[in-house]
Amino acid sequence: MSKFGQELIESAKEALAIAEGRAKPARAVSAEAPDVAAIRKRLGLSQDRFAKRFGLSSATVRDWEQGRRQPDAPARNLLRVIDYAPETVERAIRAGGG
Q1: Does residue 33 contact residue 70 with C-beta atoms inside 8 Å?
Q2: Residue 30 burial class via C-beta count within 10 angstroms: exposed 0-12, middle 13-18, buried 19 and up
Q3: What global pTM score does this model have?
């Protein structure tokens, strides 16, 4: 198994332990939801192309932009990284087989 795969499994185990109350998170960060439409438009992408490029569901992107849903904490963090370094996110997704 790759190092990434091992780290992913360990992270999932840690998340389960936290969810079950057997462990406490190392730290909690509360982040305001980024403006998904502004990020997408700055990149010159349609909702569908933005979703595909970054491994998201088109329906999810649409719901975020229309205010029907809010991104959860991991999605907010991903959106921030996409906003800051979209090429890096794309490279990481390609390298991971996504």
Answers
A1: yes
A2: exposed
A3: 0.66
| CB-based contact 37:44 (threshold 8 Å) | no
For the segment 13-36, what is each residue's pLDDT rounded down to a tens digit? 888 888 888 988 877 666 678 999
Task: Quote the tokens at residue 84.
Answer: 């800051």
Q: Rounded to whole angstroms, how far apart are CA atoms 58 and 15?
A: 26
**Radius of gyration over every alpha carbon of the chain, rounded to an integer in angstroms:** 15
CA-to-CA separations, 91 to 17, 35, 74, 85, 96, in angstroms, rounded: 31, 23, 19, 10, 9
Q: How far apart are CA 20 and CA 39, in angstroms?
A: 35
Q: Which tens digit of pLDDT belongs to each residue from 64-87? A: 999 999 999 899 999 999 999 999
